[in-house]
Amino acid sequence: MTMIDSPQLTFTRDELLSSHDYAKPHVVAGRTLHGGLLADGSYHPPRALGRVHALDAWEAALRQRGGEPFPASATLLSGARMPNTEQQIVLLRNGITDVFWNMLTVIGKIEARGAFIALVPVPDLQAEIVDDISQMAIGHLAGGLLEAHGIDEGGIPDQGIGGHDQMWFAARDLAFGPDAHDDVEPQPGLAREDDTRYLPEVSAEVEQFLSFIANVLIIEFRAEIGFRETQTVLRTPGLFGERSDDALVAADIVGRIRTDEEIHVRSLNQYLGEFSSVTFRTLDGGTIPGAELIDRFWGGMVEWATVTKPARDAVTARSTMQTRIQRHPDAARVLQEFDAAVD
Ligand SMILES: [Fe+2]
Ligand SMILES: [Fe+2]
Q: Ligand 2 centre and the CA of 71: distance in Å?
């Protein structure tokens, strides 16, 4: 009898955290960063060696069972952004550089907070799910996947290795020089505050965890839009004076962050795809398809992230920007240019 080799679907923590063999340390603007370049000059994200191999295998297995990674993409792209790329360029051309500086600082600090993802308690999902999840990504969340994700965001400060937080600060310092402006802290309110129980059939713990995964997916996915726009600004000629070559390097660093984030979005789509494909046990002793649980709250989260929140943020941002532009010697003209560039 011939045996067909079945693909590996269970992975150890060490395998999931394993990295490529980089040719040299990844040092930019004096900061040691995660990930690195291979001998051929190509960038590879940190902890991507085993993780990407595992995601390939889990995705293939999910598709073989008739499921698919959660198709989040199309619904998450809309929503106004303020300031948008053109408005950011108007500000920089007129010498108002602190707005873009602040944005880069704030993104770095929000990334640093993402380190909490490594520490999120994972409920005993197998106890809540009828299907055997030991050969799925969702069976590995506490076994290295969320740990890898959190470290990607916040780095390993003990070892002096910067994650996305330090990568943004490196990009910022390349474009403007270190200490060009004051430090700044993020505003609260990235995720929706909502205590409604949308999934009363399952425990609050499970609902919170599913909601956490979906929230991180939405935040990661929408962040990507801003990262792409940031690269466009950094690559726009004439905005960074004598630092224009460094600004191009900064754009490349943002490109590396985007490459890292692709693994996050892909992972989260895989988790939600798997959760949608399995059957959950209900508190009353019955069962419910995972797809029914996910679909019930997903629409509301998307509505909030792509319509409600952007509209609210745009009003606040317009007022903050107006106040900032008033300090410009030619404020009326700059404000007019700024408003003309609105989406
Ligand atoms: Fe990140
Ligand atoms: Fe991320």
A: 18
From ligand 1's centre to the CA of 114, what distance in Å?
A: 7
Distance 261 CA to ligand 1 centre (A): 6
Whether residue 208 is contained in a domain is answered as yes
- What does the alpha-carbon distance between residue 221 and residue 211 come to, in Å, rounded to a whole number? 15
- pLDDT tens track for 9-43: 999 999 999 999 999 889 999 999 999 999 998 99
Predicted confidence (pLDDT) per residue in 293-309, tens digit: 999 989 888 888 888 88
Sign of the torsion angle spanned by Cα atoms 173, 179, 180, 181: positive
For Cα atoms 137, 141, 146, give the angle at the middle one, nearest 5 degrees: 120
- Rounded CA separation 203/206 (Å): 5
How close is the Cα of 205 to the center of ligand 2, in Å?
23
The domain total for the chain is 1
* Ligand 1 center–CA 152 separation, angstroms: 7
What is the 148 CA–ligand 2 centroid distance (Å)? 10
In a domain, 312, yes or no: yes
Distance 267 CA to ligand 1 centre (A): 13
Residue 303 belongs to domain spanning: 71-340
CA 317 to CA 8: how far, in whole Å? 49
Token duo for residue 197: 């129980």
Note the ligand closest to the C-alpha atom of 168: 1
